[in-house]
UniProtKB/TrEMBL annotation:
<dbReference type="GO" id="GO:0004803">
    <property type="term" value="F:transposase activity"/>
</dbReference>
<feature type="domain" description="Transposase IS4-like">
    <location>
        <begin position="161"/>
        <end position="398"/>
    </location>
</feature>
<dbReference type="GO" id="GO:0003677">
    <property type="term" value="F:DNA binding"/>
</dbReference>
<dbReference type="InterPro" id="IPR012337">
    <property type="entry name" value="RNaseH-like_sf"/>
</dbReference>
<protein>
    <submittedName>
        <fullName>Transposase DDE domain protein</fullName>
    </submittedName>
</protein>
<dbReference type="InterPro" id="IPR002559">
    <property type="entry name" value="Transposase_11"/>
</dbReference>
<dbReference type="InterPro" id="IPR047952">
    <property type="entry name" value="Transpos_IS4"/>
</dbReference>
<dbReference type="Pfam" id="PF01609">
    <property type="entry name" value="DDE_Tnp_1"/>
</dbReference>
<dbReference type="GO" id="GO:0006313">
    <property type="term" value="P:DNA transposition"/>
</dbReference>
Length: 492
């Protein structure tokens, strides 16, 4: 095996990420991972540290180490493991080897606010989405050749005119510290000292690429902590021509009106409190009808008066009944409410397929929480909780970007590529790519591995939610640990 000499690039610059991501100018979308634009984001937020001659932890190296923690689990996810990777990086590049004490790294992490990482996450999604032709209509033969999942194949049979965005919420837990409890109180049904701080998150993800467009987080409970209230904070991420797909929880008059004002079409499961067959409906077919929603008489407490009076008096929507016999579906019959009223351009069958593809965001959330291990955050302060959260989301978008890049090279649907395989590849090459000369063989490997597996082709597959291997059963702690130790001392 020929020796690959070490790279002599500046490790303190964000070009470090180009090497770790195995990028060169010959790849599609190669300008998305742009080290100069990343540096510009840090400059705009006046983040500048580690610029001394003997300093190790510059913004680039600190962010690089943060992302390296996300790619691993267990002991390899610790700050100590990240510091050892930085020490290896310095040694391989001929720089002064830093101490493996974690204090300098932890101080450097505190200097990177989450808004900087959030801007980079959004930038990657915006640039990659803009460079892809998402409105290209595909025939069944073309979808089969690209190994598109059935839901994507059905959706691609017609043009939507813009992005298709999926929205859904999920929760995370954080380390049980007093600061985290004040910022993100535990579930109010749990006794004090027995729960963990809980964050509620609402994500906006592209259906075709899987890239995270935006995310808003907040406390689990309290005023303004619901999913719709959080989603209201990222309405500006929507653009005219977009189509928003969501479950029944988001099917409210105010969100539909806000989307219409932005030129965004909505496609949601009809809320269970709304009548699926109102008397004023105009029948279009056996399973389709047009309905008129009237503006609620009472103004919500959170909405200013002026904004309330600017809301339209009525909204016209199309209701489409859907029947499914697929095993595993809880509802055999449900109704979709959509602002897409043109039956010829968007027939009922296409509407049903579009909504059923909403399940993709459930898989994306599983990738974020389970594959990247983000369901339990380890940071002990609210600021670091958000930094850790957005570091995970940056790693998620980097993985999705690499999958998209590989799909363009191989003419595969990005949704047919394996997220876990791509994550494993980047974890293995994160340090290697940073310290070695980027050869054509490494670049080709980075394009080949993500497309080596195929996912999303097992239509109608159902599995029981049960584990064969028994878990170790431990007693549940039913009181704060401090009280538990006090009782044991009293007994002794």
């Amino acid at each position: 095996m020929p020796f690959i000499p070490a790279s002599h690039s500046n490790a303190a610059s964000f070009s470090l990420f180009n090497r770790s991501m195995m990028q060169n100018a010959s790849l599609p979308l190669s300008d998305v991972i742009n080290d100069q634009r990343w540096q510009q984001v840090f400059d705009e937020h006046e983040i500048n540290f580690g610029s001394g001659e003997d300093d190790v932890y510059s913004p680039a190296i600190t962010l690089w180490a943060l992302i390296s923690q996300v790619f691993f689990s267990g002991e390899q996810r610790s700050c100590k493991a990240a510091v050892i990777r930085v020490a290896n990086l310095c040694a391989a590049l001929g720089r002064r080897v830093c101490s493996t004490n974690t204090s300098a790294y932890c101080r450097a992490r505190l200097k990177i606010p989450f808004i900087v990482i959030r801007d980079i996450v959004q930038q990657i999604a915006a640039d990659a989405e803009a460079a892809c032709d998402q409105n290209r209509v595909q025939t069944r033969e073309q979808s089969a050749a690209r190994l598109s999942p059935s839901s994507i194949a059905d959706m691609k049979s017609r043009s939507t005119g813009g992005r298709i965005l999926l929205v859904d919420g999920f929760t995370l837990t954080a380390a049980d510290t007093p600061k985290n409890q004040r910022a993100y109180p535990q579930n109010p049904t749990q006794k004090p000292g027995l729960g963990f701080p809980v964050l509620r998150c609402v994500s906006l993800i592209s259906m075709t690429t899987g890239l995270l467009v935006d995310l808003v987080s907040g406390p689990y409970s309290g005023k303004g902590s619901g999913e719709t209230a959080l989603f209201w904070q990222m309405l500006d991420a929507l653009r005219p021509g977009d189509t928003l797909v969501a479950d029944s929880y988001y099917c409210t008059y105010w969100l539909v009106s806000a989307c219409r004002a932005r030129g965004v079409q909505v496609l949601m499961k009809n809320h269970h409190l709304r009548d699926d067959h109102p008397q004023n409906a105009r029948r279009l077919s056996k399973r389709e009808r047009l309905v008129t929603w009237s503006r609620p008489l009472q103004r919500p407490d959170w909405m200013p008066r002026q904004e309330f009076w600017q809301q339209p008096l009525t909204l016209t929507l199309r209701l489409v009944d859907v029947q499914t016999n697929q095993p595993g579906y809880r509802a055999k019959t449900f109704t979709i409410a959509t602002s897409i009223t043109d039956r010829k351009a968007s027939p009922a069958r296409w509407i049903a397929a579009m909504y059923q593809s909403r399940w993709l965001i459930e898989l994306d959330i599983r990738s974020i929480k389970c594959s990247l291990g983000m369901d339990i955050l380890r940071a002990k302060s609210p600021d670091m909780v958000l930094t850790e959260l957005w570091s995970c989301l940056l790693a998620y978008n980097l993985i999705r970007f690499k999958m998209l890049q590989s799909s363009l090279s191989t003419d595969r649907d990005p949704r047919s590529l394996s997220f876990a395989t791509t994550q494993q590849m980047l974890a293995a090459s994160w340090l290697l790519g940073a310290v070695t000369k980027l050869t054509d063989e490494l670049v080709a490997l980075g394009q080949q591995v993500p497309s080596s597996e195929r996912v999303g082709h097992r239509t109608g597959r159902t599995e029981p939610r049960a584990n064969k291997r028994r878990t170790k059963v431990l007693a549940l702690l039913k009181q704060p640990r401090y009280h538990y130790h006090q009782q044991r001392k009293a007994i002794v």
